[in-house]
Structures are given as structure tokens and as C-alpha cells.
Amino acid sequence: MRRLIPWGTRGPADSRAWFADPLVFACGLALFYGVIALAQRWLAPFVPGPEISLDPRMLPLYAGYSLLRMALAYVLSLGFALVYGYLAATRPRLERFMIPALDVLQSIPVLSFLPGVVLAMVALFPHREIGVELGSIVLIFTGQVWNLAFGFYSSVKSIPRDLEEAAYVCHFGRWQRFSRLVLPHAAIGLVWNSMMSVAGGWFFLMACEMFVLGSRDFRLPGLGSYLQTAASAGDMRHILWGLLVLVAVIVLLDLLIWRPLITWADRFKIEQVQAVTQPHAPVLELLRRSSAVAWFKRRVTGPIDARLLGWFPARTVLPAIVPTQPRGRLVRNRVVGAAFLALVAYAIFRAVLLLAQLSRADLLEIAAGTGATFVRVLIALVLGLAWTVPVGVHIGLSPRLARIAQPLAQVAASIPATALFPIVVVALARLGGGLDLAAVLLMLLGTQWYILFNVIAGAMTIPEDMKETVRVFRFRRIDRWRYLFLPAIFPHLVTGLVTAGGGAWNASIIAEYFHFGGQTLSTLGLGSSISHATDAGNFSLLLGATVAMAATVVTFNRLVWRRLYRLAEERFTLEG
To answer: What are phi and psi of 342, to 5 degrees?
Structure first.
């Protein structure tokens, strides 16, 4: 049975356990205080366009606000991803509708969600800050959730058949199958995709905490609004201060959350030979020594698990005659379905009326912008794929290297593109690259990490006995890639490419249109059209550009990525 090396000395495990409970209690108290402080702000009267101070002493408070928004958005994203991905992977009838819907949703940029989400939240709470706060959280949610949902869906689809058969033979109920088979199999990919989703939330934080709708200015105190205010003023000194605090927050998250989760998820790797080197996290060892955590597991999570097992009992043989649905329930379902279709038809009708306001010049701009952004996205994907596959496999195969590279990659993936835009533009201006090349590089910053994190997750799931086999038979390097590495990471690689494509299209709204030093820098593209339409309050152009972007992404997904998903499911699933 696998045992982690104790932190510190190699004496008894309880020799240093005396400070575990006070530290756990202090962290819980700090979290509780942060939630209370944010709740007090939510209930405060609404103040349009509050001033964002550039005083560095305000950065700890702003970081706390942003961190709590990110945490709430992540909890929503994780819950949505687990439910949506599981239903799409296990219900073939629903899968035909849910996956195309997910394609459409992940192709819609954050700024396209912005008008409807913010205006709806403000209308619900017109006199309180909670409206704008909820709008910001939902916008962060839209930047996190699609990657998680696609990753979990792919993990459920790639469960080995022998494990599925074992669960069937053991008469697993729904909760047993989900908690004992699905979640453990998806644990490694879920952890790495969670890191990427949170990094994506930081990436779009500036757009989610400070936004303009026509003449209305909505902003919230936080790291994103601090960086946006400094960038708009062209203040490089305060941009660097904001980036420094952002990096510090990301490093702390890595030490306190992600590294313990990576170590914990390693126990679910499918293998028959134990690895020589195993991941190690001092924080996880500390939690294992805490009596408060043990009490929580015994008194809270254990009874909840037992209650769920009672609600979803073990599978039994279905009766020969399946009872028909009561007539009253059938009529109710039809009425609800008809009402839903009526709402969809009305929404389509209103959208068509809005699109009818587009001029010929607007249509030409959308068509040319679609082609320009599509080319930039393809270039960014190719550049990202070229280096992330070899580097990601190397990191995933080496736990020691992963401990060093993982926090560095997470920091790099989390830095907002708009904070780097001045540096990139100045550098390319000296090289003669221009704004077009800057837009490609900034898309690359929003694209390559999705591929890298998924490749690392795929490489970490390679069983140790397979790696031992290629070593024993002395496979050449090219044969290792051909027969082991590429087939093993292929399902994860496809997921990374799908989410990276959506990330590149989303990053176009920042890479192609930017405010800096009182000037507006832009280039031809759909992202530029969407950002300009948002600033001007031109909802017809905003809708038209968003529809064009969604249609392009969905078409490409159906023609390319969906076929690769089927190939991964049929040929590259690990079987016993």
C-alpha cells in the first residue's frame, strides 16, 4: 500500500501534529472573515463607477476581493462541469444536444456575455452592489467552466471497459459508480483542468471587474480593475506592482491548494507497478495529521456519503414490464416543453430583428474580421502545439520536474494579456512586427496553456508498468512516442486543442482591441469588432460578430475536433 514520506523528520507521524489543528482553524477563520467582508460589500448601496485607488497599500484588500470572486466562480464551474459532463457522457440522446451547445457556449467571448449578464443582475438588485458582484462572478464563471466541462466529459468517455464491467458486476448504484469509478478516474485530469480554468479566470479578470456598457461604467475593487486602471493610464510602475501581487497570490494557491491536490490525485493512477519517485506535498501531510480534518471526515463527509448511498441504492434487475408514465405527468412535460420552445422562438425572433439593423459595412467588417481572426487562431494553435507536446510529456513523466514547472506554468498562464500588452507592443514596435503579430502572440498566451496542462495530465496517467516495459525492451525514442506517449495523451490532447481553440477566440477580444495610455489600439478581427461594439453600446454589431464567431467555432469543431474525439474514444482508450 502506497505511503507518503512524512514531512520534516522521519520520526513518528504525530511528532509534529500539535500545530496542525491551529493552522487549519486559522485558515478556516480567515476564509470565514473574507466571506463576511465580501457579503457586507454586497449589501452596501450601489455606487456607479467607484474610484479605483492605485496606492499599492490597497493591493492586499483588492487581492482578497478578487480571490473570493474567483473561488465562488470556481465552485459554480466545478458543480456545473460535473453535472453537465457526466450527463453528456452517459446519456447518448442528451449528448447529441449538449455537446453542440457546449461548443456554442465556449465559443462566445466573455464580453459577449457581458451586456446580458450585467444588466440582468443590476436589474435584479438595482440599489445594491450585489448585482454588479454577481455579474462579475458569472463572467468569471464563463471564463472557467467550459474547459472543466470538456475535460470531465472526455475523462468519463475514456473510462476503460474492464472498470465499467467491474462496476456492473458489483451492482454499483448511481452514486457508487460516480464516487468510486468516475471521479477517481477523472481526478488527475480534473485537477489539472481546474488549475487551467482558474488561470483562465485570472487571465480575463481585468475584463470581468471593470467594464463599460455605452455610457454606463461598472467597476469593482479588485486586482483586475487595479491592473486595468494602471494600464489605461499607461502607468508601468503600478502595472508591475499589480503583477507582483498577482504572482504572489498564484504561488500561494499553488502551495496551499494545487500541489496537495496533485499529490492526492496521484493515488488514482491506473497502474500495477508503483512508481520509484512519488509526489510529495507538505500541506497534504499537515492535513492528514490534523484531528480537526479527521473529525470533519468522520462526522460530516462520511455520513453524507452514507446518506447518498441510501438515496441511490445498488443496481437491481429491471422489471420485465416498464411502467408507463402517468398521463398527468406526460401532459405537464409537454406543456413545459412547449413553453420552452416558445421562449426560444421569441428569443430567435428578437435576435433576427436586431441583426436586421446591421448595415452592409457592418456585414463586410464581420466577414473580413472572421477570416482575419481565424487565421490568427490557427497560427496560435500551431505554435502552441509545437512546444507544449514535448515539454508537457517531459513534465508529466517526471514528478520532480513537475513540482518546479507546474507553478511556473500556472503563473505564466494567469497573467492577464492586457497587463502584458504594453510590453509586447513596445518590443514588437522595435522589431517591426506591428499590432497583427502582437495579437497572435497574445492569443498564444491565452491558448498554449490549455494544451500544456492537458498534455501534462495525460502523461501523468501513463501507468508505470507501461513505462517500465518500454525501458526493458529498449524502445527507441521515436518508437516510445509512436507507441506509448502520443496514444496515451491523445484524448487529453484533443480536449486541450478544443479548449485552446475556444480560448484563442476569447483572447481575441483582448488581443485585437486595447486601451493604453489614453489611446485605443486595434486591428481587423472579430475580437476587435466585439470589443468596439461593447464600448459603443452597438448591440446589433455585438450580436452579429458573436454569432459569426460561434458559427465558425462550432463548424470547425464538428468537422475536425468531433472526429478526433471519436478517434480517441475508439482507438486510444486505456484497456486492461
So the answer is: -65, -40
Specify whether the backbone of 159 is left (phi greater than 0), alpha (psi in -120 to 50) or beta.
Answer: beta
Can you name the residues that pair with 45 across neighbouring β-strands?
Answer: 128
Q: What is the DSSP track for 399-449?
A: HHHHHHHHHHHHHHHHS-HHHHHHHHHHHHHHHT-HHHHHHHHHHHHTTHH
Query: What is the tens place of the pLDDT at every residue in 179-209?
Result: 888 998 888 888 888 988 888 788 777 777 8
**For residues 481 and 470, what is the distance between their CA atoms, to the nearest angstrom?**
10
The string of pLDDT tens digits covering residues 49-63 is: 678 888 888 999 899
User: Does the pTM of the predicted model rise above 0.70?
Assistant: yes
* Domain 21-267+278-316+356-571, CATH: 1.10.3720.10
C-alpha torsion sign, points 402, 404, 409, 414: positive
Distance CA 62, CA 223 (A): 5
How does pLDDT run across 259-314, given as a tens digit for each residue? 888 888 888 876 655 555 566 677 777 777 777 777 777 777 778 777 777 776 65
Instruction: Report the share of the chain in percent with pLDDT over 90.
Output: 10
Report how far apart, in Å, the C-alpha atoms of 525 and of each of 66, 127, 142, 480, 518 are: 30, 37, 22, 41, 22
Local confidence band at 16 (pLDDT 50, 70, 90 cut-offs): very low
Burial of 356 (0-12, 13-18, 19+ CB in 10 A): exposed
Phi/psi at 93 (5° precision) = -65, -40
H, E, C per residue of 14-52: HHHHHHHHHHHHHHHHHHHHHHHHHHHHHCCECCCCCCC
8 Å CB contact between 140 and 69 = yes
